[in-house]
Amino acid sequence: MVAHTDTAVAHTDTAVGNGVDAVVEKVCSDELPVHSLERELGDCARAVLVRREWLKRQPGVASAEAVGRVPHEGFDYDAVHGACAEMVFGYIPLPVGVAGPLLLNGKTYQVPLATVEGALIASTRRGCKAITAAGGASAAVLSQGMTRAPVIRFPSAIRAAAFAAWMHDPANLAVAQEQFATTTRFGRLTSCRVTVAGRYAYARFVCATGDAMGMNMVSKGVSAVLDFLSAGSFGDLELLGLSGNVCCDKKAAAVNWISGRGCSVVAEATIPGHVVESVLKTTVAAACELNVAKNLIGSAMAGALGGFNAHASNIVTALYLACGQDAAQNVESSQCITLLEPANGGADLHVSVTMPSIEVGTVGGGTILAPQRACLEMLGVAGAGQEAGSHARELATVVAGAVLAGELSLLAALSAGHLMRAHLAHNRKPAAP
Ligand code: ADP
């Protein structure tokens, strides 16, 4: 711990004579902009040291001493700079644990999960154990495509309708595809659906983005298409925002639930009754009944949107944090319907998860950071796949497989609790009169 305190750093600073104090004075007197210290000093680690000292003196910091306890040493700030975060003054370490082995599509995975929720990894691991003992799970990618839907205003609703009609003509899609292709080697526009609301048009572009999650790539391509259209037949289009929320990024929305975003994945396993009883400590009937009552009826009564599951977001978020994904995309990536059904006349348990909008990438974004990349390497999906998008698709299947394990284990635990209470109630002798 001592190595991570500012005391240790101040000592190092003095020893090497970095002159941090003089720079801090300049930043505090506004001679040097605090947001561009990396560029000004040409040294990202030193910029962090200076920013910490500056921060300690700022209003809004209730404890300067606490700033000194946020770790900062031994981190690759060069990789972060200009790519992953700004105004960096340290880093937050998270424990990363492993759930596995998970046998999925004939391959064994050890799934890294970064979380501070105790029991989550242990529980997911128990689900992996049941799946693997059952001979494994299978998962398939139903579709893959990142979306961006700019909001465009026209002088009239009729012009918005004309734009929609133009975009929906397959011949014109080819024109848009050509423009999109000028911006990227990896991305390809595959379709576009326009939603009209009065004078506003929301063109939901769907794009193949290789192994990248693809938001940046799609945004660039869509800009090029709109520039082309506004210079031609739609000179009256007014681009109000490159994202008009029909995309729909990082908000719960039916459009992703119905049409998909990123990878749409289904995963399933059939768990023999004896494994349900020995590993999951419940019965096929109790687990199935709970799934209907909780994940289907309960979620319907709550008005859930894609939330027909027990805790998919727990596993999605922990896996995203470990693997350098955009954790905020857990909102739509966790949309999931979990189904449990009796199989083989009720002897065994069929379990599936269907997840229409798992947004993952194995290049770009946080995957460039060494620890996160190491977790992707553990899974065998770091970087570009042999076939365009194959690593991203495989990672999406691992997400679904791990969610399958997590769902199975939590549902089993809840239904086992019910069984236990029922058992105790039946065995309890009536109280003496
Ligand atoms: P995103 O588009 O996912 O938001 P980036 O802006 O980092 O994230 O885009 C990914 C970058 O990786 C792009 O610049 C793209 O050209 C590059 N790239 C390299 N290899 C691949 C690949 N196999 N698939 C997709 N993109 C790739």
UniProtKB/TrEMBL annotation:
GO cellular component: endoplasmic reticulum membrane; peroxisomal membrane
Transmembrane intervals: none
Top EC class for this record: oxidoreductase
One GO biological process term: isoprenoid biosynthetic process
Keyword annotations: Endoplasmic reticulum, Membrane, NADP, Oxidoreductase
Membrane-protein topology: Multi-pass membrane protein
GO molecular function, one term: hydroxymethylglutaryl-CoA reductase (NADPH) activity
Main location: endoplasmic reticulum
Catalytic activity, EC: 1.1.1.34
Pathway: Metabolic intermediate biosynthesis; (R)-mevalonate biosynthesis; (R)-mevalonate from acetyl-CoA: step 3/3
Pfam families: HMG-CoA_red (PF00368)
Catalytic activity: (R)-mevalonate + 2 NADP(+) + CoA = (3S)-3-hydroxy-3-methylglutaryl-CoA + 2 NADPH + 2 H(+)
Keyword Calcium listed: no
CDD domains, per the entry: HMG-CoA_reductase_classI
Coiled-coil ranges from the UniProt annotation: none
Cellular compartments annotated: Endoplasmic reticulum membrane; Membrane
Gene3D superfamilies per UniProt: 3-hydroxy-3-methylglutaryl-coenzyme A Reductase, Chain A, domain 2, HMGR, N-terminal domain, Hydroxymethylglutaryl-CoA reductase, class I/II, NAD/NADP-binding domain
Domain of life, source organism: Eukaryota
InterPro entries: HMG_CoA_Rdtase (IPR002202), HMG_CoA_Rdtase_cat_sf (IPR023074), HMG_CoA_Rdtase_CS (IPR023076), HMG_CoA_Rdtase_eu_arc (IPR004554), HMG_CoA_Rdtase_N (IPR023282), HMG_CoA_Rdtase_NAD(P)-bd_sf (IPR009023), HMG_CoA_Rdtase_sub-bd_dom_sf (IPR009029)
UniProt keyword NADP, yes or no: yes
Family: Belongs to the HMG-CoA reductase family.
Protein name, UniProt field: 3-hydroxy-3-methylglutaryl coenzyme A reductase
